[in-house]
Each structure stands twice: as structure tokens, then as C-alpha cells.
User: Fold this.
Amino acid sequence: MTFFDWALAALLLASFLCLYRIGRGPTAPDRIVAIDILGTLIVGFCCIYGLVRQRDFYMNIAMAWALLSFIGTIALAKYLEGRAYDD
Amino acid sequence: MTETIAYTIIGIGLAFDLFGAIGLVRLPDVYNRVQAATKCVTLGTCFILVGVLIHALHTGDPALGVKALLCALFVILTSPVGAHAIARGAHIAGVRLWEGSVADKYQEKQASEEH
Assistant:
């Protein structure tokens, strides 16, 4: 295995730890935190994978995922506070 | 030489990411998990993206590297804001602190504003 294979394996391990917290998490904010962290990990995964494959459309996926994950997190946090999304 | 620097930086980032994910699983309540996971994973992902930038510039693919830098900028800007919103939302939604917690400054501030 090359260095990048180990890097992708480590990121997958971290993602599975996040999935454990999403499935197990006792309260809703636990799950939202884990979803947010999973999005950030996937950004790093897409960037390393784009470097390995020498295709830069993976970087476009990473940029879109970073912004969409932020919007989703803010919407879920507003839901936790009990306010409307356009408040 | 440049490849070694890029590998070292990506390795540091991977270590931070793994520690953040372990903290997400191991720590006792949602506020501890927010602070451990968000700080570690933000820094780790930014390290990974800077390492990708260095490696891409070394192999002569600057478009990929500049996009990685842009991703790092987005992550730095959005991740702390999201974590703050989640922690505030969790406190307002009434999630209890871990019984070993020693301070709750947000509740004290709200109590002092009510009086």
C-alpha cells in the first residue's frame, strides 16, 4: 500500500467512527455534530482522492460539499433552537 | 524533498482527524464532543488540504492545488460558525451538561439578564 492508500484508509476509519456516533448518539445535537464532522472529513477524502486519480472534478465535489454541509448544519441548528429557517 | 514535506503535512492532518473522530466517540456529552471534534477535524482537514496544495504544485497541477486552497478557506470560515450554532442550539433545546461539568457560563449570563 502506498502512502495515499493509508491516508484514505485512515479517513474511512474516522468516517466510520462518525457513523457510529450518528447511529448511537443519545440526543439530536450529537447526531448533528457527527454529520457536520463527517462532511468535513469527506472534503479531505475527496481532495486526497482527486490528487491520487489526477482528476480535478473531485475538488469541485469537495468545494460544493463544504458549502452545502455548512448550510445544512445552520438549518439543523436553527431547528434545534425552535425557530423558523428564515428567522 | 517537496514530496516528503507534503507527505509529512498530510500525515499530521490525518492524525488530527483521527484524534477528532476518537474524541467524538469517547467524550461524555455533546458540548465536549463539539469542541473536541470541531477543532481537531478543522485543523486536520486544513493540514490535509495544504499538503494536497504542495503536492499538486510539485507535480505540476496548479488548478487542483488552488481548488484545495479554496476548500481550506471554506472549511476555516464555516466550521467554527457551524459548531457555535450547534452548541447554542443544543443549550437552548435543553440538552443537559455532563454531571462532571463545573461551569455553565451561558446559563449564568441568561439568569443575570433576567433579574
User: Anything to note?
Assistant: The mean pLDDT of chain B is 89. Chain B has one domain: 2-114. The two ends of chain B are 63 Å apart (CA to CA). Chain B touches chain A through 49 residues (CB under 8 Å).
